[in-house]
Automatic annotation (TrEMBL):
Residues 30-378 form the Aminotransferase class I/classII large domain. PROSITE patterns: AA_TRANSFER_CLASS_1. This is Aminotransferase. InterPro entries: Aminotransferase_I/II_large (IPR004839), AspAT/PAT-like (IPR050596), NHTrfase_class1_PyrdxlP-BS (IPR004838), PyrdxlP-dep_Trfase (IPR015424), PyrdxlP-dep_Trfase_major (IPR015421), PyrdxlP-dep_Trfase_small (IPR015422). One of its GO terms (molecular function) is transaminase activity. It comes from the Bacteria.
């Protein structure tokens, strides 16, 4: 009999629920997509030009494992200026292959088999598999819509055990767009300190906030020493394809992560790092323009959903709206599938982000105003047919 070459872990992993919808949509014509979680903007030209120049000048070799020192210095300056958090470029920052790899090395650095990580749902689809692949145990807790999809400290306390090692926190959130304010972060910080937990703060959407000023978790009293702060260029700088992110953490944790990074990846792509230097040096006005545009689109889409009877809270950040579809009587899968097949609009069913996402759909508004208007027109028609 043929040997099974696949590990038990690989066999047990389920494909992302988002994929199924992308595959369905890929075979159709004229689809308006609110499905993908990436900016519709092309990376600003000067940033692209910096990468081209680096190639022309022959910078085609590996960089330092932690990334070009010049880039780490820029990241350090950026984090100080934008978020008032301080990290040493020489010992507390690693440039990674997207925030994705930063999350992966963070997990592999802190988890022993059986260690628990609290994951707040609805959440980014990769969190649970990444904890699992690192040998940890994901413990899910549900942020509820009646609390604007924000977790309550008491809910965290309920699931903490002796094995809890860390909380994984994402604000602004994918898929809900919910953003925790300073007071809410302080309440979570209190729990982390009380139980001596690490917090992995996924701040990849920190640039994309629309109403309130952003507070980084590392800024909260007692948190810098227990925070692994993850961010990157994909969302705020419209650089998803460059695969560039970074992680900031206290030196001891950073140096341990660096060992894993070094053996697994060596370093992030050098030309992408040159592009990122330019993005940080001169990209502020581009980011501000994109934020303005996202804000306009958010206001339009949230209002439109509420007008068509799909209750939608106003997301404070990221580029996702997460309206309720409960009034239609359909499950989120049924709603998304029928909307795609009957009106060619692609959205993501909320249940793929965890059980508390059921009854909702995730709609990315990182697409043009014309496309959003077309999607609203089609969705109105679809809803009217249902009633
Ligand atoms: N974290 C969250 C919450 C995300 O939504 C995403 C991408 O969708 C990532 C991390 C991964 O980003 P990157 O492209 O930097 O790997």
């Amino acid at each position: 009999m043929k040997k099974n070459y696949l590990s038990k872990k690989a066999q047990a992993l389920k494909p992302s629920g988002i994929r199924r919808f992308f595959d369905l949509a890929a075979g159709m014509k004229g689809v308006v997509s609110l499905g993908v979680g990436e900016p519709d903007f092309v990376t600003p030209w000067t940033v692209r030009e910096a990468a081209i120049l680096s190639i022309e000048q022959g910078y085609t070799s590996y960089s330092a494992n932690a990334g070009l020192l010049e880039l780490r210095k820029e990241i350090s300056g950026y984090m100080k200026k934008q978020f008032n958090v301080m990290y040493s470029p020489s010992s507390e920052i690693i440039v990674t292959v997207g925030a994705s790899q930063a999350i992966d090395i963070a997990m592999r650095t802190i988890l022993d088999p059986g260690d628990e990580v609290i994951i707040i749902e609805p959440c980014f689809v990769s969190y649970s598999p990444m904890v699992d692949m690192a040998g940890g145990v994901p413990v899910h807790v549900q942020a509820l819509k009646e609390n604007d999809f924000k977790i309550l400290p008491s809910q965290l306390e309920e699931v903490i055990t002796e094995k809890t090692k860390a909380i994984l926190l994402c604000s602004p959130n994918n898929p809900t767009g919910s953003m925790l304010n300073k007071k809410e972060l302080e309440e979570i910080a209190e729990i982390a300190v009380k139980y001596d937990l690490l917090v992995i703060a996924d701040e990849i959407y920190a640039e994309l906030v629309y109403d309130e000023e952003y507070t980084s978790l590392a800024l909260i009293k007692g948190m810098r020493e227990r925070t692994i702060l993850i961010s990157g260029f994909s969302k705020g700088f419209a650089m998803t394809g460059w695969r560039l992110g970074f992680v900031c953490a206290p030196e001891e944790i950073t140096q341990a992560m660096l060992k894993i990074h070094q053996y697994a990846i060596m370093c992030a792509p050098t030309m992408a790092q040159f592009a990122a230097i330019e993005a940080l040096k001169n990209g502020r006005s581009d980011v501000e323009e994109m934020v303005k545009s996202y804000r306009r689109r958010r206001n339009y889409i949230v209002q439109s959903f509420n007008d068509m009877g799909l209750t939608c809270h106003t997301p404070g950040g990221a580029f996702y709206a997460f309206p309720s579809i409960e009034s239609t009587g359909l499950s989120s899968e049924e709603f998304a599938e029928r909307l795609l097949l009957e009106e060619s609009v692609a959205v993501v069913p909320g249940n793929v982000f965890g059980v508390s996402g059921e009854g909702h759909i995730r709609c990315s508004y990182a697409t043009s105003m014309e496309q959003l208007q077309e999607a609203v027109k089609r969705m109105n028609r679809f809803i009217n047919k249902l009633i």
